[in-house]
Amino acid sequence: MYPIIQFALLPLLFTSAQSTPTPRSLPAKVHARTSSPGHGTLTTTTNGSIIHAVINNPPINLWDYKLAADVSSFVDTLATNVNTTTNPKVVIFSSANPDFFIAHYEIHALDASSPVLPPGNGTLIGEQLLRTRTNLATLPVIFIAEINGRTSGAGNEFAVQCDIRYAGPATSVSHLEVGFGLPPGAGGIQFLVKLIGRARALEYILSGRAVDAVTAAAIGWVNKAFGSAEELTQETDALAERIAAFPEQGLAAIKARVNVQKPSDTDLQGDNDLFTQLASTKVTQEAASLFLKVSENESAGTFELNLPKDLTEIVPPGS
Fold first, then answer.
1. pTM (predicted TM-score)
2. Residue 129 CA to chain centroid, in angstroms?
3. Helix, strand, coil share (%) of the chain residues, nearest 5
4. Rounded to an integer, what distance in angstroms lies between the CA atom of residue 71 and that of residue 159?
5. What is residue 58's DSSP assignment?
6. 319 residues of the chain, pLDDT tens digit each
7. What is the DSSP-derived secondary structure letter of residue 208?
């Protein structure tokens, strides 16, 4: 959904947890575990053929220029390593922030009156987002989203394009684009319809309502919900270990054939084109400015913590 237009208008969008993150507890492995600083807002940890990538972009894990560039760079590295001995079988994405998985897109990238500072222009962020979308779907790597916190808009579009989603008790998934007079533009519509069906996708995208972990699992938005952050981590790790135990060629072949059911490139491009067309309208620009005001410039305050409950506050009068 993140338009590729010069003056900055890209993907948006966004969405309780414990006071401190739960430490990961990986099962014992014969492989040596190595750590690296990752890609700025991502810290990566390798354990055999599994990579764990932790998102940490304070204060609310915005999908901004930094995170978009880091995720794109990381996934591009995986694409470069395809068919080499260094390519992982499984990648787990999780968050270091107990309140947010990925909040939403950086709204300054949408608001022409208050654009993001260079190099975070809309064109570049859009290219990064769409390239990441393509790589998540097509690479012979199994991507697991370990969600425990709010995620909406661009954040949810990233999550639904991972191959598997496990959710913890603090999970809240949603789409906020409707508040800006926009449709999701980076795959959110097409992937969500595939997951939960036409009627439910319409219900949640049109209303901008949040869905908790248990409900999300019941309708297919996520694979499974867990009652604690600790159980979420343990079960995600166990699933990754199980998948990684099987031959790489089989994993790649299965993903490729399941991808026959993924949304078409034509439909995905159509969503992005419509988002781009509407993003510069008066309604969207006014809504973006209102959002930045009531969210206190996207801080970790009451508005962001309550999203999408208070989404109607950003709707311009008469729209």
1. 0.85
2. 10
3. 45, 15, 40
4. 13
5. T
6. 444 333 333 333 333 333 333 334 333 322 232 334 446 899 999 999 999 999 999 999 999 888 988 999 899 889 887 665 568 999 999 999 999 999 998 898 888 888 877 666 666 777 787 788 888 988 999 999 999 999 999 999 999 999 999 999 999 999 999 999 999 988 899 999 999 999 999 999 999 999 999 999 999 999 999 999 999 999 999 999 999 999 999 999 999 999 999 888 899 889 989 998 999 999 999 999 999 999 999 999 999 999 999 999 999 998 8
7. -
Alpha-carbon Rg of the chain, whole angstroms?
A: 18
Helix (H) or strand (E) holding 71, with range, is helix 65-80
Q: SS3 of 220, please?
A: coil
Whole-angstrom Cα distance, residue 97 to residue 267? 33
Domains of the chain, start order = 33-314 (3.90.226.10)
* Dihedral pair phi/psi, residue 30, rounded to 5°: -80, -20
Q: Do residues 152 and 173 touch, judged by C-beta distance below 8 A? A: yes
